[in-house]
Structure formats: C-alpha cells, structure tokens
C-alpha cells in the first residue's frame, strides 16, 4: 500500500474508534510511558497521540493491515436481503471502503439443474432468477459502478424495472444491450453457475439468506453484529488487524 493510502486507512481506523467510543465510558488518563505510546491504536488514542503516531507511521516503510473481506450471499427479491443491502452493507461500504472489500453473490436459495448447469429455479419464482442474472451480469460488466447500480435496484420499489435506469444513472458508458445480451446468452448462465458453485461451497452450508461471511468465515456472532451494526463490526475486525501493524512503529 502506498503511503497516502496508508494514511487514509489509519484515518478510517480512528474514525471507527471515535464512533465506537462515543457510546462507551470515558477512557482513563494515559498510564503508559512515552516509549509505548505507539505500540497499539488503543494506547495511542488513550494517550491522545494518535495524530503523532499516524505521522510517524506515514514515514515508515510498512504495510497497513489488509481490508476486511465481506461476502454477501443473497437473492435479489428477498426482503431481508434487500434490507441488509440498503440499510447496512452499502452505507457501511460507502464510509469504510478504504478498509473493506465487498463480494456480492446473487444466487441464495436458488437451485441448479446439475445435469446441464443452465436451468435454475428460485425461491421467489422466475422474476427472481431473471433479477439474479441481471445483477450477476452487472457485477461482471460494470466494474466499480456495479455496487452502486445494485444498491439503486434493491432500494427501488420494483427491482427489475429499476435495472435499466439505475444502469444509465451510474454507468452511462455501459449499454443496456450489453447487459441484456449477457442475461439472454451463455455468459449469464455461466455466471449463475459460478455463483451456484460458490454458494454450494460454503462451510458451514448456508441455512438462510442473507448469509454474510467475513474473510470466508461465518459465525452466528458475526451475523448478529452484522445485522444490527455492520459498521461497528467492520471497524472492530480491522482494528484488531491494524493493532498488529502499529507494533512495527517502535
């Protein structure tokens, strides 16, 4: 990671800490000697020297902690999935994208006819299968704009009808014809098969949607925290990683 990106990541960490500390008891006065002030983020904050530690970090040749990887296994017409995307996942990613990677896997509780890998049935019927494939094609063809387009779709009253105007709003250089060709052709089926394989490979197997993993791991504790405050969970997971990076300062 280049130094400007490192500084940005550390700033996000401090933002996370401030948000978390706002609802907790005040921290005691600094009880550490100066030689230990930059040994961890918690000590730096307690001793009110985080700015100095960040400046010191910026001139040291080291890497910041890797981003937290969040993967959402979902289906496009599932009410709970739509709520999680619009109220938790997209807002959190918008604020924390410097320390957070998101993978979207539109498939959920769909079923694939294994004999030909081209026929799918979905929990909410054929419209959901069509919507899942539209979103899979958008993810494949639209690059960084894809998440914005899918958020736009999932927050609309009619997910499928919103697809084309959302594409035009967030990725005007991408023609709807290219998305439609993907959906109706072999590429869309191959993308959905890949999503089916990824979903079936989950360990433990998914029991419901939305199903969220963090660095490939699912736990009920993570799920409970993600559904109530994904922002704070991502901050907590990143701070644990970044504390190890702070040890390189001294």
Automatic annotation (TrEMBL):
Family assignment from sequence similarity: Belongs to the GILT family.
Species per Swiss-Prot/TrEMBL record: Hippocampus comes
GO cellular component, one term: lysosome
Stated name of the protein: Gamma-interferon-inducible lysosomal thiol reductase
Species classification: Eukaryota, Metazoa, Chordata, Craniata, Vertebrata
Molecular functions per Gene Ontology: oxidoreductase activity, acting on a sulfur group of donors, disulfide as acceptor
UniProt keywords, alphabetically: Disulfide bond, Glycoprotein, Immunity, Lysosome, Oxidoreductase, Redox-active center, Secreted, Signal
Database matches in InterPro entries: Interferon-induced_GILT, SAP_A
Domain Saposin A-type residue range list: 23-63
Organism superkingdom: Eukaryota
Enzyme Commission numbers on file: 1.8.-.-
Record note on quaternary structure: Dimer; disulfide-linked.
């Amino acid at each position: 990671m280049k130094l400007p990106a490192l500084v940005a990541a550390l700033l996000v960490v401090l933002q996370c800490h401030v948000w978390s500390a706002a609802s907790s008891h005040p921290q005691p006065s600094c009880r550490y000697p100066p030689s230990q002030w930059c040994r961890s983020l918690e000590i730096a904050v307690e001793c009110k020297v985080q700015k100095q530690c960040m400046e010191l970090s910026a001139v040291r040749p080291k890497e910041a902690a890797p981003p937290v990887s969040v993967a959402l296994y979902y289906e496009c017409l599932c009410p709970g999935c739509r709520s999680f995307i619009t109220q938790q996942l997209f807002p959190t990613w918008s604020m924390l994208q410097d320390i957070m990677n998101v993978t979207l896997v539109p498939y959920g509780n769909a079923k694939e006819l294994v004999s030909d890998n081209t026929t799918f049935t979905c929990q909410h019927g054929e419209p959901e299968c069509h919507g899942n494939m539209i979103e899979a094609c958008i993810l494949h063809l639209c690059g960084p704009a894809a998440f914005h387009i899918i958020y736009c779709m999932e927050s609309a009253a009619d997910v499928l009808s919103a697809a084309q105007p959302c594409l035009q709003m967030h990725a005007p250089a991408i023609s709807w014809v290219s998305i439609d060709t993907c959906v109706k052709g072999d590429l869309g089926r191959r993308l959905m098969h890949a999503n089916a394989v990824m979903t079936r490979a989950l360990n433990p197997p998914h029991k419901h949607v939305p199903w969220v993993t963090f660095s490939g791991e699912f736990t009920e504790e993570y799920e409970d925290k993600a559904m109530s405050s994904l922002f704070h969970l991502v901050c907590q997971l990143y701070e644990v990683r970044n504390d190890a990076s702070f040890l390189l300062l001294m």
